[in-house]
Specification:
alpha+beta
Length: 212
Protein backbone atom coordinates (compact mmCIF):
# COMPACT_ATOMS: atom_id res chain seq x y z
CA UNK A 1 0.00 0.00 0.00
CA UNK A 2 1.39 3.38 -1.01
CA UNK A 3 1.48 5.85 1.88
CA UNK A 4 0.31 9.27 0.69
CA UNK A 5 1.27 11.02 3.95
CA UNK A 6 4.62 12.48 4.92
CA UNK A 7 6.26 11.02 8.06
CA UNK A 8 5.22 14.15 10.00
CA UNK A 9 1.61 13.87 8.84
CA UNK A 10 1.49 10.16 9.65
CA UNK A 11 2.90 10.75 13.15
CA UNK A 12 0.41 13.52 13.85
CA UNK A 13 -2.49 11.40 12.59
CA UNK A 14 -1.55 8.35 14.66
CA UNK A 15 -0.87 10.35 17.83
CA UNK A 16 -4.46 11.66 17.86
CA UNK A 17 -6.01 8.20 18.01
CA UNK A 18 -7.48 7.54 21.46
CA UNK A 19 -6.76 4.41 23.46
CA UNK A 20 -10.15 4.29 25.20
CA UNK A 21 -13.63 5.56 24.45
CA UNK A 22 -13.11 4.87 20.75
CA UNK A 23 -16.01 4.73 18.28
CA UNK A 24 -15.99 0.89 18.11
CA UNK A 25 -15.98 0.71 21.91
CA UNK A 26 -18.89 3.15 22.15
CA UNK A 27 -20.92 1.02 19.72
CA UNK A 28 -20.48 -2.03 21.93
CA UNK A 29 -21.27 -0.10 25.10
CA UNK A 30 -24.45 1.42 23.67
CA UNK A 31 -25.71 -1.93 22.43
CA UNK A 32 -25.06 -3.65 25.76
CA UNK A 33 -26.64 -0.84 27.78
CA UNK A 34 -29.75 -0.67 25.57
CA UNK A 35 -30.21 -4.42 26.01
CA UNK A 36 -30.07 -4.31 29.79
CA UNK A 37 -26.41 -5.23 30.41
CA UNK A 38 -24.64 -3.22 33.09
CA UNK A 39 -20.89 -2.97 33.14
CA UNK A 40 -17.85 -1.06 34.34
CA UNK A 41 -15.15 0.52 32.20
CA UNK A 42 -11.37 0.11 32.27
CA UNK A 43 -11.28 -1.51 35.71
CA UNK A 44 -7.65 -1.34 36.80
CA UNK A 45 -8.05 -4.16 39.33
CA UNK A 46 -8.91 -6.61 36.53
CA UNK A 47 -5.81 -7.96 34.71
CA UNK A 48 -5.20 -6.25 31.38
CA UNK A 49 -7.65 -3.43 32.23
CA UNK A 50 -10.33 -4.61 29.76
CA UNK A 51 -12.44 -2.05 27.91
CA UNK A 52 -15.66 -3.46 29.39
CA UNK A 53 -16.07 -5.57 32.54
CA UNK A 54 -19.25 -7.48 33.41
CA UNK A 55 -18.63 -8.86 36.90
CA UNK A 56 -21.96 -10.68 37.09
CA UNK A 57 -20.91 -12.71 34.05
CA UNK A 58 -17.25 -12.87 35.12
CA UNK A 59 -16.47 -11.65 31.60
CA UNK A 60 -13.98 -9.15 30.19
CA UNK A 61 -14.62 -7.62 26.77
CA UNK A 62 -11.83 -6.16 24.65
CA UNK A 63 -12.82 -4.00 21.68
CA UNK A 64 -9.77 -4.12 19.43
CA UNK A 65 -8.92 -1.82 16.55
CA UNK A 66 -7.97 -3.91 13.53
CA UNK A 67 -4.83 -1.89 12.79
CA UNK A 68 -3.40 -1.56 16.30
CA UNK A 69 -3.89 -5.23 17.14
CA UNK A 70 -3.03 -6.67 13.73
CA UNK A 71 -6.32 -8.37 12.91
CA UNK A 72 -5.77 -11.26 10.47
CA UNK A 73 -2.21 -10.23 9.71
CA UNK A 74 0.08 -12.86 8.26
CA UNK A 75 3.68 -12.34 9.23
CA UNK A 76 6.42 -12.94 6.72
CA UNK A 77 8.10 -16.30 6.38
CA UNK A 78 11.36 -16.62 8.31
CA UNK A 79 14.63 -17.29 6.55
CA UNK A 80 18.08 -18.12 7.84
CA UNK A 81 21.19 -16.25 6.71
CA UNK A 82 21.58 -18.63 3.76
CA UNK A 83 18.15 -17.68 2.45
CA UNK A 84 16.58 -21.05 3.31
CA UNK A 85 12.97 -20.96 4.36
CA UNK A 86 12.27 -22.10 7.93
CA UNK A 87 9.18 -23.92 9.08
CA UNK A 88 6.80 -22.28 11.51
CA UNK A 89 7.90 -22.75 15.13
CA UNK A 90 5.92 -25.25 17.14
CA UNK A 91 4.77 -22.79 19.79
CA UNK A 92 3.98 -19.57 17.99
CA UNK A 93 6.14 -17.03 16.20
CA UNK A 94 8.77 -16.76 18.92
CA UNK A 95 12.28 -17.21 17.58
CA UNK A 96 13.44 -18.58 20.93
CA UNK A 97 11.25 -21.63 20.33
CA UNK A 98 12.97 -22.66 17.11
CA UNK A 99 14.84 -25.51 18.77
CA UNK A 100 14.95 -27.55 15.57
CA UNK A 101 17.14 -24.87 14.03
CA UNK A 102 19.39 -24.21 17.00
CA UNK A 103 22.52 -24.64 14.90
CA UNK A 104 21.36 -22.23 12.25
CA UNK A 105 22.36 -18.61 12.72
CA UNK A 106 19.19 -16.54 12.43
CA UNK A 107 18.93 -12.96 11.42
CA UNK A 108 17.78 -10.82 14.33
CA UNK A 109 15.71 -8.65 12.05
CA UNK A 110 14.06 -10.94 9.51
CA UNK A 111 12.01 -9.68 6.64
CA UNK A 112 9.87 -7.26 8.61
CA UNK A 113 9.20 -5.38 5.41
CA UNK A 114 7.57 -8.46 3.91
CA UNK A 115 4.65 -8.50 6.32
CA UNK A 116 1.49 -9.32 4.40
CA UNK A 117 -1.38 -6.90 4.90
CA UNK A 118 -4.86 -8.15 5.66
CA UNK A 119 -8.17 -6.80 4.38
CA UNK A 120 -8.74 -4.85 7.59
CA UNK A 121 -5.15 -4.03 8.59
CA UNK A 122 -2.83 -2.31 6.16
CA UNK A 123 0.63 -1.32 7.40
CA UNK A 124 1.91 2.10 6.26
CA UNK A 125 4.91 1.89 3.97
CA UNK A 126 6.46 4.83 5.84
CA UNK A 127 8.50 3.62 8.82
CA UNK A 128 7.12 0.14 8.21
CA UNK A 129 9.48 -1.74 10.53
CA UNK A 130 8.39 0.45 13.45
CA UNK A 131 4.71 -0.32 12.88
CA UNK A 132 5.31 -4.04 12.45
CA UNK A 133 7.26 -4.18 15.72
CA UNK A 134 4.59 -2.17 17.52
CA UNK A 135 1.78 -4.43 16.32
CA UNK A 136 3.78 -7.52 17.30
CA UNK A 137 4.24 -6.14 20.82
CA UNK A 138 0.53 -5.33 21.05
CA UNK A 139 -0.37 -8.88 20.03
CA UNK A 140 2.03 -10.39 22.55
CA UNK A 141 0.63 -8.18 25.32
CA UNK A 142 -2.92 -9.10 24.32
CA UNK A 143 -2.21 -12.81 24.52
CA UNK A 144 -0.57 -12.42 27.92
CA UNK A 145 -3.56 -10.44 29.24
CA UNK A 146 -6.01 -13.05 27.97
CA UNK A 147 -3.97 -15.84 29.54
CA UNK A 148 -3.82 -14.15 32.96
CA UNK A 149 -7.56 -13.42 32.91
CA UNK A 150 -8.48 -17.00 32.04
CA UNK A 151 -6.18 -18.36 34.72
CA UNK A 152 -8.03 -16.17 37.24
CA UNK A 153 -11.42 -17.51 36.24
CA UNK A 154 -12.45 -14.80 33.76
CA UNK A 155 -13.98 -15.37 30.35
CA UNK A 156 -12.56 -13.22 27.53
CA UNK A 157 -14.52 -11.88 24.57
CA UNK A 158 -12.68 -10.02 21.79
CA UNK A 159 -14.72 -7.83 19.44
CA UNK A 160 -12.92 -6.51 16.37
CA UNK A 161 -13.54 -3.13 14.77
CA UNK A 162 -14.49 -4.71 11.43
CA UNK A 163 -17.19 -6.76 13.18
CA UNK A 164 -19.02 -3.57 14.17
CA UNK A 165 -19.91 -2.27 10.72
CA UNK A 166 -23.61 -1.37 10.34
CA UNK A 167 -24.29 -4.44 8.20
CA UNK A 168 -22.94 -6.94 10.75
CA UNK A 169 -23.04 -5.28 14.17
CA UNK A 170 -26.38 -6.83 15.16
CA UNK A 171 -25.14 -10.32 14.31
CA UNK A 172 -21.87 -9.68 16.16
CA UNK A 173 -23.55 -8.42 19.30
CA UNK A 174 -26.06 -11.27 19.33
CA UNK A 175 -23.09 -13.62 19.39
CA UNK A 176 -21.61 -11.62 22.27
CA UNK A 177 -24.94 -11.90 24.09
CA UNK A 178 -24.97 -15.67 23.56
CA UNK A 179 -21.45 -15.95 24.99
CA UNK A 180 -22.43 -13.85 28.01
CA UNK A 181 -25.43 -16.05 28.72
CA UNK A 182 -23.32 -19.18 28.39
CA UNK A 183 -20.79 -17.70 30.81
CA UNK A 184 -23.54 -16.92 33.32
CA UNK A 185 -24.92 -20.43 32.99
CA UNK A 186 -21.47 -21.91 33.58
CA UNK A 187 -21.08 -19.81 36.73
CA UNK A 188 -24.49 -20.94 37.99
CA UNK A 189 -23.63 -24.59 37.44
CA UNK A 190 -20.28 -24.16 39.16
CA UNK A 191 -21.77 -22.44 42.21
CA UNK A 192 -25.19 -24.06 42.27
CA UNK A 193 -26.55 -23.77 45.82
CA UNK A 194 -26.91 -27.02 47.76
CA UNK A 195 -30.35 -27.42 49.40
CA UNK A 196 -30.31 -27.29 53.19
CA UNK A 197 -30.52 -30.63 54.96
CA UNK A 198 -33.77 -30.71 56.98
CA UNK A 199 -34.87 -33.08 59.68
CA UNK A 200 -37.64 -35.52 58.81
CA UNK A 201 -40.89 -33.80 59.65
CA UNK A 202 -44.26 -35.24 60.71
CA UNK A 203 -46.57 -35.33 57.69
CA UNK A 204 -49.10 -32.52 57.69
CA UNK A 205 -52.75 -33.55 58.13
CA UNK A 206 -54.91 -33.77 55.07
CA UNK A 207 -57.71 -31.30 54.46
CA UNK A 208 -60.34 -33.90 55.37
CA UNK A 209 -58.67 -34.52 58.72
CA UNK A 210 -58.66 -30.81 59.50
CA UNK A 211 -62.43 -30.64 58.97
CA UNK A 212 -63.17 -33.30 61.65
Amino acid sequence: MTDTMTPEQRHRCMSHIKGSGTKPELKVRRWLWSHGYRYRLNVKSVPGKPDIVLRTYRTAIFVNGCFWHGHRLRFAQMYDVRGMKLEEPRSGNNLRDLQDFARVELEQEYNKRDLQNSMCCKIPSTNREFWVSKIRRNQERDQENYRVLQENGWQVIVVWECQLKPSVIEHTMREVELLLNNNLLSLYKKHKPVPFATEEETPLPKAAELAE
